[in-house]
Structure formats: structure tokens, C-alpha cells
Design a protein that fits this description.
By secondary structure, the protein is mainly β. The protein has 1 helix and 11 strands, in the order αβββββββββββ. The strands form 3 sheets. It has a 5-stranded antiparallel β-sheet with strand order 6-7-4-9-10, with no helix packed on it. It has a 4-stranded antiparallel β-sheet with strand order 1-3-8-5, with no helix packed on it. A two-stranded parallel sheet has the order 2-11. Belongs to the insect defense protein family.
């Protein structure tokens, strides 16, 4: 009888757990929570966001990477650029850097980057295109799935603040 209960429990549990080996759904764009049963993780996340630059300017892509100094595996990601002034506002567009990733979220489905397959990754590179209009300072926000079952994921990993490069000052010359 106990084997029967274990099987029933696993069937019910698998109905609840939404495995997403081909990327985060649009429903995860706002809260960045994966559709997996949570596992409580404590301490500092073993992942970090490295950005190649402390400033951004329209028309110039910003690149970076997601790494784990302690060699933790990456199975799934959801990466977004958010406004410091309004953290609910997604900023700019991501460009897919390999077949392992795709873009999602926003009206144009490019406001975030997620995994496109269940392959294990040791690091992730990304390319982000700033908005063409004047924008706010931003930061990158990340969710990383380390294992599917048992589910283990890390939420709200953030980068340092990235400042919008100020416009070049234009000086008027006056003839004397």
C-alpha cells in the first residue's frame, strides 16, 4: 500500500511542477519566479552578473555574462534589465547570443533572455541593446535554476547599477 501512495504522490506532484526546459513563459516576466516547486536556498547565490561597462548609451550594445565562481551548473535562466527609478519597468532589448538562449517578455518579446533547452551551462553570455530614447539608470535582475528535481533555484540576483551615459555637452561659440 505504501508503494501505491508514493506513486500517487509523485503523479500529483508532477502535475503541479511545471518543467520548462525550453525557457521561461511570459507569465514569469513580472515576478521572475519559475514554475517549479520551491526549494529554500540560504546564503549568497553562487551566481553573479558581470557587465562590461558601468555606463550605457543608446545605439551601443552592452555585453555581459552570468557566471558561478564555485562552478555551480546553470540549467535555466531569466534575465531582465530594469529601471532603477521604476523596477517594474523592463528596459531595452536582448539579442540571443547562441542557440541555447532566446528572448521573451514585453510587447516585442525581447525584453528578457531565457534558456531555449535543458542543456547544462557553466556560464552564459548576453548582449543587451539600450532603448533609443533617453532612459533611466538600470540594473540587471536574474533568476537561475540550478536543478529541476529536486527544484533548486535562486531569485533576485542583481548586477551593479548601470548609469546612462550623459549626453555630450554642446557648447556654443561666440564671436567677440
Amino acid at each position: 500500500m505504501s508503494n501505491f501512495m508514493v506513486v500517487i504522490s509523485l503523479v500529483l506532484l508532477s502535475a503541479y511542477v511545471q518543467g520548462l526546459p525550453d525557457g521561461a513563459p511570459a507569465s514569469a516576466c513580472s515576478d521572475m519566479v519559475p514554475g517549479h516547486l520551491p526549494t529554500i536556498v540560504k546564503g549568497e547565490p553562487p551566481y553573479q552578473i558581470n557587465v562590461n561597462g558601468a555606463f550605457y548609451q543608446p545605439g551601443t550594445p552592452l555585453t555581459g555574462s552570468i557566471t558561478s565562481p564555485s562552478d555551480h551548473v546553470i540549467l535555466g535562466v531569466l534575465l531582465e534589465a530594469r529601471s532603477v527609478a521604476d523596477p517594474s519597468h523592463l528596459v531595452g532589448e536582448f539579442t540571443s547570443t547562441s542557440e541555447d538562449f532566446k528572448t521573451v517578455c514585453g510587447a516585442n518579446h525581447k525584453s528578457a533572455m531565457t534558456h531555449a533547452n535543458p542543456n547544462k551551462k557553466n556560464n552564459v553570455t548576453f548582449s543587451w541593446n539600450p532603448p533609443s530614447t533617453t532612459g533611466d539608470d538600470i540594473y540587471f535582475r536574474l533568476t537561475v535554476v540550478e536543478s529541476w528535481f529536486p527544484s533548486k533555484y535562486w531569485l533576485n540576483i542583481t548586477s551593479q547599477m548601470i548609469n546612462r551615459r550623459p549626453e555630450k555637452l554642446k557648447f556654443k561659440s561666440y564671436d567677440a
